[in-house]
Amino acid sequence: MMTTKISETLQKVRDVNPLVHNITNVVVTNFTANGLLSLGASPVMAYAAEEVADMAKIAGALVLNIGTLNPIEVESMIIAGKSANESGVPVILDPVGAGATDYRTATAKKIMAEVDINVIRGNVAEVANVAGERWEIKGVDAGDAEGNVVELAISTAKKLQTLVAITGKDDVISDGKTTYIGHNGHPMLTKVTGTGCLLTSVIGAFAAVEKDLMLASLAAVTFYGVAAERAAGKTVDKGPGSFQIEFLNQLSMTSSVDIEQYSSVTKIE
Ligand code: ATP
Ligand code: TZP
Ligand code: MG
Ligand code: MG
C-alpha cells in the first residue's frame, strides 16, 4: 500500500514539475540542478539577499544547504526561510558537516532557531550534532562511529519538532511518533560527491507536491535508492564516473512501475 503511494507521489512530481529554490554549496550546484531536471522538477539557484524572499515565496520548496557556508549566504538563507514560512512553502535543511567545525554546528542551529524547518536531511553524524549529541564526523562524511540510528531519528524529531531523515546504508525517517526505514540504495552513491545534497533537494521536489511530509520524504529516498540500484546495475564493470552519469539518466528513467517492483520499506512498530 505504501509502495503505491510512493509511486503515485513520484508521478505527481513529474506532472507538476515543481520549482525548487536551492541555496546550496559550490561543490554540488550543477549536479543538483541536473538531478532535479532529470527527475522532472525545475531547479533554481538564487542567493542574493535582495531577491531570495521573492524567489522562495513563489517556489514549491526551499532547500537550505550549508556545505560551503559563509556569513553572507547564511543571512540569505534566513531571509529566504522566513519568506517561505510566511507563504507556506516547505523548507528542507541539509546541515552539511555539522559537528566538523563549531561554525557549521552553530549555523545549523541558528537557522533552525530562526526558520521553521519542515524536514532535516543529513548523515547520522550531522543529525546527531544538530541535535546536540556528540557523534564523530570526518569533514562532510559520516565516518565510522556506531550508535542506534533509529533512536537518534526519533529523539531528534521530538526535540527539534521536525521530520528527520537520516541517510546511510538504510534511510531512517521519523516524525517522533512514526518511523520508517527505506532500504533502497547502493554503496556507489558514497563514491560520488553531492549525492546526499541532491537527495535533500529531491526531498524538496517531493515535498512541493505532497503535504504529508513523511510520505514525501519516504517517496523521495525510495525513488532515489531504486534509481541508484538501476544505475549500478547498468555500470557494474565501470567506476564512479560512469555511475554518476547513469544515475542522472536513471533519475529520469526510473518509473512508477519500477518503484512498485523494487521499493523496499519497513515501518517500525
Ligand atoms: P556522507 O557524506 O556521509 O556520504 P551524504 O550527505 O552524502 O553523507 P548519504 O548518507 O551518503 O548522504 O546519502 C546519500 C544517498 O546514499 C542516500 O540515498 C543513501 O541511502 C545512500 N547510501 C549511503 N550509503 C549507502 C550504502 N552504504 N549503501 C547503500 N546506499 C547508501
Ligand atoms: N565539501 C563541502 S560541501 C561538499 C564537500 C565535499 C559536498 C558534500 O556532498 P554530500 O552530498 O554530503 O556528499
Ligand atoms: Mg556523500
Ligand atoms: Mg551530505
Give a written overview of the molecule.
There is one protein chain. This protein has 269 residues and is of the alpha/beta class. It has a single domain (2-268), classed as 3-Layer(aba) Sandwich (UDP-N-acetylmuramoyl-L-alanine:D-glutamate ligase). 52% of the residues lie in helices and 15% in strands. The protein contains eleven helices and nine strands. It has helices spanning 2-16, 29-39, 52-58, 71-87, 102-114, 124-130, 149-160, 195-209, 213-234, 240-253, 256-262, and strands at 19-23, 42-45, 61-65, 91-94, 119-123, 163-167, 171-174, 179-182, 265-268. A nine-stranded mixed β-sheet has the order 2-1-3-4-5-6-7-8-9, sandwiched between helices. Strand 3 (61-65), helix 4 and strand 4 (91-94) form a beta-alpha-beta unit. Helix 1 crosses helix 9 and helix 9 (213-234) crosses helix 10. The relative contact order is 0.16. The mean pLDDT is 97. One magnesium ion binds at residues 190, 195-196.
